[in-house]
Design brief:
The complex is a heterodimer of chains A (146) and B (185). By secondary structure, chain A is mainly α. Chain A is built from five helices and no strands. In chain A, helix 1 crosses helix 5. In chain B, 37% of the residues lie in helices and 18% in strands. Chain B has six helices and nine strands. The chains are: A mainly alpha (146), B alpha/beta (185).
Chain lengths: 146, 185
């Protein structure tokens, strides 16, 4: 196995992992939009009137981007969009932590014991961001050599 | 020396992003239309006056409560003077929404600890109470909103004589009213 094959496998594994993760976490939010909206409300950043709009669209965006990552569709765009979403999540988390809010994260699960806002959540998001940026760079590089 | 410039097609990326976002929006519209858990696209909210500010609290589900009797009222703010009258009257239950650690350091004498993140504890307590029970929820001070959340939670449960004391613990202790510390009320 040469280094290029190894690299391709690594990219594929990251794509599959992140794609499945985003698809998985979107399901609970799609099924329970009201619960997700309440979690967003607790961050106390968005105007109240917009909560439902965001709670309805973001999970579907996560699901669609999860699918495009898994099947390798428009990788450059998907990875870039996901990176943008993750950066927004990171900013929200840091803002909540800096304001001392002890609230439910809503990151992976909507359950009350599904994890609260903490630096650990920020680290997880930074790792995911590294993954999506890795996929983006790889897609750019592939485009360049083709 | 060669410098490799990777051309990023900005316009295709923007177009493809718009396509992906549009697909997500269409799926959201369709699924929200057929879902049993559908919600309105514009959030319905209730305006609540607290600490001189007007807060907007989103309303979900079938939480429309009809108030026809003047002794029945939605959860509302109460000031220090009135809260002390209720305290002296001895009929109201005081619920401390802060963490148990803060409660142990000091709380309104007789208040029960109901940390806002322990819904199980709150649920088991309110099951023992009559819905007509007069309740005052409080937390730290004007900056803290969990007493309002607790009061609204109780209201949604069916309690109809609930107040939130926005001045909270800092206002109470600043006035020299009775306090306790430790795990017991």
């Amino acid at each position: 196995m040469n280094s290029r094959t190894g690299f391709s496998i690594a990219v594929y594994v990251v794509r599959l992992f992140l794609g499945t993760l985003f698809l998985y976490v979107s399901i609970d939010k799609i099924i329970n939009p009201a619960k997700f909206a309440e979690i967003i409300y607790n961050y106390r950043i968005l105007p109240v009137g917009m909560l439902n709009l965001v709670a309805l669209i973001i999970p579907w965006l996560e699901a669609v981007l999860g699918i495009t990552l898994i099947f390798g569709i428009w990788l450059e765009t998907s990875a870039l969009l996901l990176s943008g979403i993750i950066i927004v999540f990171i900013v929200l988390l840091i803002s909540a932590i800096s304001r001392g809010l002890d609230i439910q994260c809503g990151c992976f699960s909507l359950d009350a014991d599904g994890g609260r806002v903490s630096w650990m959540r920020v680290i997880e998001d930074v790792l995911m961001l590294a993954g999506t940026l890795f996929i983006w760079f790889q897609a750019l590089f592939k485009k360049k050599i083709s | 020396m060669y410098i490799h410039v990777v051309k990023i097609g900005v316009i295709p990326i923007v177009l493809k992003s718009l396509v992906l976002i549009s697909i997500s929006i269409l799926l959201a519209i369709f699924f929200n239309f057929i879902s049993p858990n559908k919600i309105s696209w514009i959030t319905k909210y209730r305006s609540i006056s607290a600490g001189g500010r007007l807060l907007k609290k989103p309303v979900y589900g079938n939480q429309v409560i009809e108030y026809s009797d003047i002794s029945i009222h939605p959860a509302e703010e109460i000031n220090l003077i009135d809260v002390y009258k209720l305290y002296k009257g001895g009929r109201a239950i005081f619920l401390d929404a802060r963490s148990f650690e803060d409660y142990k350091k000091g709380h309104i004498q007789g208040a029960l600890s109901t940390p806002s993140d322990e819904l199980g504890l709150i649920d088991s307590l309110i099951k023992e109470l009559d819905l007509s029970q007069k309740i005052v929820a409080y937390c730290d001070d004007e900056e803290c909103l969990i007493s309002i959340d607790l009061a609204l939670y109780l209201e949604e449960y069916g309690f109809y004589d609930v107040y939130f004391f926005v001045g909270g613990w800092s206002n109470w202790i600043g006035s020299g009213y009775p306090v306790s510390s430790g795990e017991k009320p």
